[in-house]
Design brief:
This protein has helices at about 10-20, 25-35, 110-120, 125-130, 130-170, 180-215, 225-300, 320-355, and strands at about 40-45, 50-60, 75-90, 100-105, 305-310, 315. With about 375 residues, the protein is of the alpha+beta class. The strands form two sheets. Strands 1-2-3-4 form a four-stranded antiparallel sheet, covered by helices on one side. Strands 5-6 form a two-stranded antiparallel ribbon. Helix 5 packs antiparallel against helix 6, helix 6 runs antiparallel to helix 7 (about 225-300) and helix 7 (about 225-300) packs antiparallel against helix 8 (about 320-355). The longest helix is centred in the last third of the chain and has 78 residues, at about 225-300. The two termini are about 75 Å apart.
Length: about 375
């Protein structure tokens, strides 16, 4: 067990001595510097089989209980770890001559306990026959980390998704969504999807490397033990594949939730604009009713009503009938022009829509 292999001025000398003692290639620490999400490799030397496996497991730590909104701060904790396995095979038929060295950088507490239990197990010598059984323990710990992260993200996503569905189905004209919370949960979903994909890819490459090892002629004597280990690795691959599928499902649900929120807001805004348009139409109609009368009155510029101060009577001009004779036909004309314009505009829109929907026939 060792701390994270990120070089710092304080641990640079210690890491260099450790890497030199175990023969760890420089590519191992170079990947940490470049923040590689996933990597796996192996190489073989004389009388030794070196395994290089390193992965970065991003595990968003979301502590919000069900029904609450995710915090707006970036509260994700990335768990980074690396594994190096060296196997010096025996040159004779005795397994005691074999030597297995495995170093885990930044292991989790559960992984440490599992490895301690494996050391105390009566069948611990199987690690000398097939060291890949140690990687089975590592993959099992990796599966539990990814599974726990997916469960946490699913809990928060379900609460936000339920809130969005309730607001979308409320039917109210004014609705608002917490888009900051949806962005935050979508960010965690992307991280979990990335982590589950990297973990599944690591398990697949471990399985392929073990399969190639089983095909070597000098490993036939260990075929029984290796077959059992190979089956365990296959099981871990299927478990991580299930986590990957669950993460993909969460990603799709997050996208659907965001699309539903945006479409609901656009629909409500469209309804509000339609209501405002109806109000403006009423105002326009009222204006059209009084517009001809106001126009005729201003054009004529004559007084149709006179007040007789002597007799205290109001006198109506003989031209008052002429006023209505001009105003009423002009009002009808204005409404007729408006209706004709609406019909012509509607025909043009339907013609354009028909042309757009009709299939194009190529010559």
């Amino acid at each position: 067990m060792a701390p994270l292999d990120t070089p710092t001025p304080q641990n640079c000398n210690a890491l260099q001595a450790l890497f030199s003692h175990l023969g760890i290639p420089s590519e191992f620490i170079a990947e940490r510097i470049h923040q590689v999400t996933h990597s796996f490799g192996q190489y073989q030397e004389k009388n030794s089989d070196h395994e290089l496996a390193q992965g970065v497991d991003g595990k968003p730590s979301i502590q919000d209980p069900p029904g609450s909104q995710p915090s707006q701060e970036e509260d994700d904790t990335w768990l980074k770890s690396g594994v190096f396995l060296r196997w010096k095979q025996s040159t004779n038929d005795k397994d005691d001559a074999s030597e297995v060295d495995m170093i885990i950088f930044n292991p989790t507490v559960s992984l440490q306990k599992n490895l301690e239990s494996l050391v105390k197990h009566p069948d611990w010598r199987q690690a000398l026959e097939d060291p890949y059984c140690l990687l089975v323990v590592v993959l099992d710990s990796l599966f539990k980390q990814v599974d726990a992260a997916i469960c946490k993200v699913h809990t928060v996503l379900r609460s936000v998704e339920h809130s969005v569905l309730e607001k979308a189905g409320s039917g109210t004209t004014r609705v608002s969504f917490n888009f900051v919370a949806m962005y935050n949960i979508a960010k965690h979903v992307i991280h979990v999807h990335k982590s589950s994909s990297a973990a599944h890819l690591s398990a697949c490459e471990v399985l392929e490397a073990h399969r190639q090892l089983m095909l070597l002629p000098d490993q036939l004597e260990r075929s029984k033990v290796m077959s059992g280990v190979h089956g365990l690795i296959q099981h871990k691959v299927t478990l991580l594949e299930g986590c990957k599928l669950r993460a993909q499902s969460l990603d799709s649900r997050a996208q659907n939730m965001t699309s539903l929120a945006f479409n609901t807001v656009n629909q409500r805004d469209s309804q509000n604009m339609k209501s405002d348009s109806q109000s403006m139409k009423v105002i326009a109609v009222v204006t059209m009713v009084f517009l001809p009368a106001a126009t005729v009155g201003s054009i004529c510029g004559s007084q149709f009503f006179n007040f007789d101060s002597d007799n205290h009577k109001m006198l109506i001009s003989v031209d008052f009938g002429f006023f209505w004779a001009v105003t009423i036909p002009l009002t009808v004309l204005v409404f007729g022009v408006y209706i004709l314009w609406r019909r012509l505009k509607g025909n043009d829109v339907r013609l354009l829509e028909r042309r757009r929907m009709s299939p194009k026939i190529s010559p």
